[in-house]
Write a structure and sequence with these properties.
By secondary structure, this protein is of the alpha/beta class. Among the domains are: 150 residues, C8orf32 fold; 84 residues, Serine Threonine Protein Phosphatase 5, Tetratricopeptide repeat, CATH 1.25.40.10. The chain has 15 helices and nine strands. The chain has a four-stranded antiparallel β-sheet. A hairpin with a 2-residue loop joins strand 5 and strand 6. Helix 3 crosses helix 4, helix 6 packs antiparallel against helix 7 and helix 7 runs parallel beside helix 9. The protein is globular, with a radius of gyration of 23 Å.
């Protein structure tokens, strides 16, 4: 049976602007079915500066403002690698204070942290979703979809009258500069950024198997921003994994009432009907999905894994190559292609693919596993 699909937005809002009234959240909540969260869930904490951040603001940023202007002062202080050494880490979504303390975060965490400092400086902050930056991953038996956000810093109100290039809006993005050309962006609200953060925390808790935390995080997201449809999908997956099929169905149908072709909600609703024994409904949804998205993410990869398990390594290699042809930057695809090469005795190609897996991974845990495999392949070369 396929894993339940959950739309995890590490960085971006992939759904379009919703103009219809949001679903009635009270009809979808089931507080009595879940225990208390393991930590407080406070929306006010998302952008809050702690003592260490305020000290950095006064010590590192404010002294640069007169010489560089507030926008450049903030960028210089935060992203000079000799100071904060910020690194991209996709394992967890952190609030502003947590990202600063860890000196790391996924793109949403870094956007939140940067915006928190910018607001203290009185800068105008504009949040942007980057279209066509969707990527897929899987963890804990769940399939995730991730997008990308960045932010633009405008002049302070008291600076804007001065004019000049120094006070033009500046966009901060956490992708390599070469990846920014030709981006299409759309503005999103701060309320949506907060809902995305809460949604991420829910999905991450769900991947760890903590259903209660997942429920309370996603409940907070819906209460804070009822228009954020992706949160209803996440709520549905919380119910689906807990066996609450009727509640799951209602959550997915709430998404589909506003986005009838939402493939994530359709796929999840198909799983609900399959588990409930409603075979006719499940078949209807599968047929509809096949017309909208005939080859969903991981289609060729899953076939490749099955071929590996059957011992058909040549076919597995071809299928992994086919998946990489449409998504070349996902670490697991390269890792499994490396394994297929290794089983076929093609060790130079295996080492190359495992090295690509290490390069494209965004989590230390994965990089360590791949590095260990690569060391073994290198050792095999030395004994040949």
């Amino acid at each position: 049976m396929k894993s339940a699909s959950i739309l995890l937005l590490l960085c971006a809002l992939l759904a379009g602007c919703v103009t219809a009234p949001p679903p009635r959240a009270d009809d979808l909540f089931a507080d009595d079915r879940f225990g208390a969260p393991s930590e407080p869930i406070r929306v006010d904490d998302v952008f809050a500066l702690d003592a260490a951040m305020r000290q950095a603001l006064e010590r590192d940023i404010v002294p640069l403002v007169r010489r560089r202007g507030p926008q450049h002062a903030l960028i210089d202080a935060l992203y000079d690698r000799g100071q904060l050494r910020l690194e991209y880490d996709a394992a967890i979504t952190r609030n502003a204070a947590q990202a600063y303390a860890a000196r790391a975060g996924n793109c949403l965490s870094l956007v939140i942290m940067t915006a928190a400092f910018a607001r203290e400086l009185g800068l105008r902050v504009r949040y942007q979703t980057v279209y066509n930056e969707e990527s897929w991953s899987r963890a804990g038996g769940i399939q995730f979809s991730s997008g990308h956000v960045n932010l633009s810093l405008g002049a302070r109100l008291d600076d804007s009258v001065l004019g000049g290039d120094r006070y033009q809006p500046l966009t901060i993005d956490f992708l390599p500069a070469a990846d920014l050309r030709g981006q299409r962006v759309g503005e999103i609200s701060e309320a949506t950024i907060v809902a995305m953060y809460l949604n991420n925390r829910s999905a991450e808790a769900l991947a760890r198997g903590n259903a209660s935390d997942a429920y309370w995080w996603i409940r907070a997201a819906i209460v804070h921003q009822p228009q954020h449809l992706n949160a209803y999908n996440t709520l549905g997956v919380v119910y689906l994994r807990g066996g609450d099929l009727d509640l799951a169905r209602r959550a997915f149908e709430a998404v589909l009432a506003r986005e009838p072709d939402n493939t994530t909600a359709l796929s999840n609703l198909e799983r609900v009907h399959t588990r409930a024994g409603r075979d006719d409904e499940a078949r209807r949804l599968r047929a509809r999905l096949a017309t909208i998205e005939p080859h969903p993410p991981f289609h060729y990869f899953d076939q490749g894994v099955a071929a590996m398990q059957a011992g058909d390594f040549q076919r597995a290699k071809a299928l992994f190559e086919k998946e990489i042809a449409r998504k070349a930057d996902y670490h697991e695809f390269h890792f499994w292609l490396g394994l297929a090469h290794a089983y076929l005795g093609e060790l130079p190609q295996a080492r190359r693919e495992i090295a690509l897996a290490i390069e494209s991974s965004t989590q230390t845990e994965h990089r360590d596993i791949y590095a260990a495999k690569l060391d073994r392949l290198r050792a095999a070369r030395r004994v040949q």
